[in-house]
Amino acid sequence: MSDAAAVMAGRIAQRFGAENVVASATELAGYEVDGMRPAAAVFAKSAQEISDLLKYATAEKLAVIPCGSRTKLGSGMPPARYDIALDVSRMNRVLAFDPCDLTLGVEPGIRFSALATALAAEKQFLPLNPPFFQRATVGGILAADSASPLRHLYGGPRDFVLGLEFVTGDGAMAKSGGRVVKNVSGYDLHKLLIGSLGTLAVITRANFKTFPMPPEQAVFVVAFENAAAALEFCRALGRSPLGALQVDVISPDATQIFAAKADVDIALPERRWCVVVSAAGNARVVERHRRELPAMATSAKATGVVALGDTQQSMKVAAALLGRVREFPALMQAADSAVTIFRIAALPSTIPAIAQRLSGLAAEHATRAAIVLRPHGLIYFAILPSARDAVVFGKMTKIAGAVLQAMEELRAKTRIEFAPTELKRAVNVWGAARADFDLMRRVKKVFDAENVLSPGRFTGGI
């Protein structure tokens, strides 16, 4: 740590209490963002403490990056400045839960796994279902707009977040929305914070609409020779009366990584494109899926169909499989720390063309790639390098640029969700500038006039 950083850390500890400040180099290494390490990490336990810290940062012209369990620090561009890590992991309480009204209020630092357990005791759940399930916090999930496989049926966080309380960059405490389903009036300003990566405000409370847990569930694995056949089956499934809980199309390379080091055989055949379908509801709904889905798969020329969930052992297999699908980003990072993961949002009608283009780019550059397609309009595309030398880095940079350009041509909204820092300094992870960028910059100015919060991490250097 430099002398200037040490002096800054000392002042911060004096101002906010040594018991709430981390300043040792060893511990601060865990707060690094793209090779940049803060002078100090400050734990906050309330909205007022966050407000005090941001007012101090504004006065001292210091940059602050909010965090919890730090599973999303690898997202976004390298920060322009980074002085203080604002750690909200001690703000981890359930503030209000009314099972009868299906409403919930929590602090941002609560881990989603703990929240899911509490909700399950009341036979309810939140359809966030994020990657990094065991560690991810609610605040981080919302700030990164983490993609959930359950978006197929329930939509994203913007669809069931009732309101947020937050602190803006200048330390003002504010709120938007409410705590109940019947929200009376006003703009849904809180939706601006979802996906903003901590650049507009720090969330201090999140209010949700919860959902009853389905009484029964079954999972089907349908194998195909190629992506085109798998996606045609998905289109037929979408046109049918069957209402699947989630649908994921998994490439052969992804199935190989999913199966590696799994505790149980997760029922994914090798060298096949697999469609994983989850059906949930009452017994009649699940039974109809069991009766009709195999026939649909046969009509679509599937090479195999496996139904899971009818025995205790197959329920374990189904749970393990769905967990692997959910954890795609985490599994890719575990397979190769230098992986580059793209998150692509597109119209469902363009998914087949995008899948073909991505596979073609991987083949053209002789690069190992893994794909998970969600037919409602979301694609994860991961490229895994064979080494970490200058030649491979140049190749990765070239293919990353090619993917971003190809997706722009196909009118898909693309961002690189995780990548090595070297690549992020060579390629804009947010892709081409958007038409509404000027509006986004003005919104940033309103919420964070002094550019205190996560400067440079969002699109266009916001």
Instruction: Provide mean pLDDT, rounded.
Output: 93
Percent of residues in helices: 25-40%
Structural class: alpha+beta
User: At the third CATH level, what is the topology name of the largest domain?
Assistant: Uridine Diphospho-n-acetylenolpyruvylglucosamine Reductase, domain 3
Count of distinct strands = 19
By oligomeric state, this entry counts as single chain
Share of β-strand residues: 15-25%
Main sheet summary: 8 strands, antiparallel
Individual helix count: 15
Please give the CATH architecture of the largest domain.
Answer: 2-Layer Sandwich
Shape label: globular
Summarize the structure in words.
This protein is an alpha+beta fold and about 450 residues long. The chain folds into 4 domains: about 5-90 and about 450-460, Uridine Diphospho-n-acetylenolpyruvylglucosamine Reductase, domain 2 (2-Layer Sandwich), CATH 3.30.43.10; about 95-210, Uridine Diphospho-n-acetylenolpyruvylglucosamine Reductase, domain 3, CATH 3.30.465; about 215-325, 2-Layer Sandwich (Alpha-Beta Plaits); about 330-425, Ribosomal protein S10 (Alpha-Beta Plaits, 2-Layer Sandwich). It has helices at about 5-15, 25-30, 45-60, 110-120, 140-145, 150-155, 225-240, 250-260, 285-300, 310-325, 330-335, 350-365, 390-410, 420-425, 435-445; strands at about 20, 40-45, 65, 85, 95-100, 105, 125, 160-170, 175, 200-210, 210, 215-225, 245-250, 275-280, 305-310, 340-345, 370-375, 380-385, 415-420. The strands form 4 sheets. The chain has an 8-stranded antiparallel β-sheet, with helices on both faces. A 5-stranded antiparallel β-sheet has the order 5-6-10-8-9. Strand 17 and strand 18 (about 380-385) form a beta hairpin. Helix 12 (about 350-365) packs antiparallel against helix 13 (about 390-410). The longest helix has 20 residues, at about 390-410.
